[in-house]
Design a protein that fits this description.
- By secondary structure, the protein is α/β, with parallel strands linked by helices.
- The chain has helices spanning 12-22, 43-49, 64-77, 94-99, 120-127, 162-185, and strands at residues 2-7, 30-36, 54-56, 82-85, 104-108, 131-138, 148-155, 189-192, 195-198.
- The strands form 2 sheets. Strands 3-2-1-4-5-6-7 form a 7-stranded mixed β-sheet, with helices on both faces. A two-stranded antiparallel sheet has the order 8-9.
- α1 packs across α6 and α5 (120-127) packs across α6 (162-185).
- The longest helix is centred in the last third of the chain and has 24 residues, at 162-185.
- The structure holds 5-O-phosphono-beta-D-ribofuranosylamine (GRF).
């Protein structure tokens, strides 16, 4: 399946997918292109290094619908089947999500449905919970609300800060995101009434 990755920044999750793919761990996925909405996104350097074509569509001062249409054009031209949101800090329009229904996945640094949105670590620390983690989920037209595919948890200690928590969770993101992409591109995920089941090998 042809896969497009959308990113806005550092791109370490993008890198984890590139690496897993080159180790042969996502055999049914071809990482075809990267789309970024920030010209300084380090994800661009990663794409260049691995000869993955990248497209910059600047989102500043652009209407969401226009931005999404530009992306759709690139995705259609490249016959993309699956979209991976790897630190993509922009909400997608309902129109866009419906065009790729059950074909977009996102990584989020909390145990959803707890702490959706852009400040998951901050809110986790503030709430004083003893556990957090990360979630890969399908994208629907809410914010971090779609059906959950895989989660992994870590303990939160009393002296954890946003930064230490992020550092603890990131390596787990790098494990579960490529895994979820493999399950999806191997057609092993089924969604029934908003719940995901994983088919055995
Ligand atoms: C990750 O923590 C991801 O869960 C969140 O944004 C961060 C992106 O990091 N959505 P990176 O750009 O993949 O390094």
């Amino acid at each position: 399946m042809e896969v497009a990755v959308l990113a806005s920044g550092r791109g370490s999750n993008f890198q984890s997918i590139i690496d897993a793919s080159s180790r042969g761990e996502i055999p049914n996925a071809n990482i075809k292109l990267l789309i970024v909405n920030e010209k300084n996104a380090y994800a661009i350097e990663r794409a260049k290094k691995h000869n993955i074509p990248h497209y910059l569509i600047e989102s500043k001062n652009k209407k969401r619908s226009d931005f999404d249409l530009e992306m759709l054009e690139i995705l259609h031209e490249n016959r993309i089947d699956i979209i991976v949101l790897a630190g993509f800090m922009r909400i997608l329009s309902t129109h866009f999500v419906n065009k790729y229904k059950n074909k977009i996945i996102n990584i989020h640094p909390s145990l959803l449905p707890l702490f959706p949105g852009a400040h998951a670590h901050r809110e986790t620390i503030k709430a004083g919970v003893s556990e957090s983690g990360c979630t890969v989920h399908f994208v629907d037209d809410g914010v971090d609300t779609g059906p959950i595919i895989i989660q992994k948890s870590v303990p939160v200690n009393r002296n954890d800060t946003e930064e230490t928590l992020a550092n603890k969770i990131l390596p787990l993101e790098h494990q579960i995101f490529p895994k979820a992409l493999d399950l999806l591109t191997s057609r092993k995920l089924k969604i029934n009434k908003g719940k995901v089941t994983i088919e055995a090998d």
